[in-house]
Design a protein that fits this description.
Layout: H1 2-16, H2 23-29, E1 34-39, E2 42-47, E3 56-63, H3 67-75, E4 87-97, E5 100-107, E6 116-127, E7 132-139, E8 151-152, E9 154-165, E10 170-180, H4 187-192, H5 197-208, H6 218-226
Parallel strand pairs: 6-8
Antiparallel strand pairs: 1-2, 2-3, 3-10, 4-5, 5-6, 6-7, 7-9, 9-10
């Protein structure tokens, strides 16, 4: 179904362009999610959000790479087009500080649909006690955002929680998203992809990390070092 595929693309692109939960709270909150699928070591879940026609999605699984590399993929916005389907452009609009920035993403769609774009505030929070990195994002109105003819989607809340495991060799990833693509896509089509978003997100992240030119992001490395993450 073409419209359904586009909905998946919009949600995935918005979520990865990365007031949610601390890692400990996220683990406690897991009980409120309904498991839909368990395949290739990836658990896919959904949660009904009160007052919203759109379902929140979740994917959880392990990645065979250190947390610093996994986090580097998430914050390297300029490379989103390599692994997020149909992303035509993605860039940082402005840096608020070292752990907060505003991003822009343009998602190309077939001629029968209007392209979407997203403007999001992204924050990074590292916790050396739990060996975790949390990447939070949500849509904002920002003066640096370009004026476009595209439909501007609303990322209501999204979070990636990365936790270092196996002595730092691997990373446990929990990806959550609640997004309204806006425009004329019916909510039932968006919700149709509750069974695939989490799986595709973790799977795409794993594939990107197999590339030999994936490098440590220097700013992220400095943030983790200053937090005492490697001590």
């Amino acid at each position: 179904m073409k419209a359904a595929r586009i909905t998946h693309t919009l949600v995935l692109a918005a979520a990865l362009a990365v007031p949610i939960l601390s890692p400990a709270h996220a683990r406690a909150d897991a009980a409120s999610w309904e498991t839909l699928r368990h395949e290739d070591g990836i658990v896919v879940s959904r949660r009904v959000v009160p007052g919203s026609p759109f379902v929140a999605f979740r994917g959880e699984g392990d990645v065979d790479a250190p947390l610093l590399l996994v986090g580097s993929v998430l914050v390297e916005i300029d490379r989103d087009h390599e692994w997020i389907d149909s992303v035509a452009e993605a860039r940082v609009l402005r840096q608020v500080n070292r752990t907060e920035y505003v991003t822009y993403s343009h998602v190309a769609t077939p001629p029968t649909m209007s392209d979407r774009d997203f403007v999001m505030d992204v924050t990074l929070d590292a916790d050396p006690a739990t060996k975790s990195l949390v990447v939070r994002m949500h849509s904002v109105n920002d003066p640096s955002a370009p004026k476009t003819k595209y439909v501007r989607g609303d990322m209501q809340e999204s979070v990636f929680t990365l936790t270092s495991i196996d002595g730092g060799k691997r990373t446990h990833v929990v990806a959550e998203v609640h997004c309204d693509p806006k425009g004329n896509i019916a909510s039932w089509i968006v919700n149709l992809f509750q069974k695939s978003w989490g799986y595709n997100t973790i799977h795409a992240l794993r594939a990107q990390l197999t590339k030999k030119d994936i490098a440590v992001h220097p700013v992220l490395a400095a943030i983790l070092e200053e937090k005492g993450f490697f001590r």
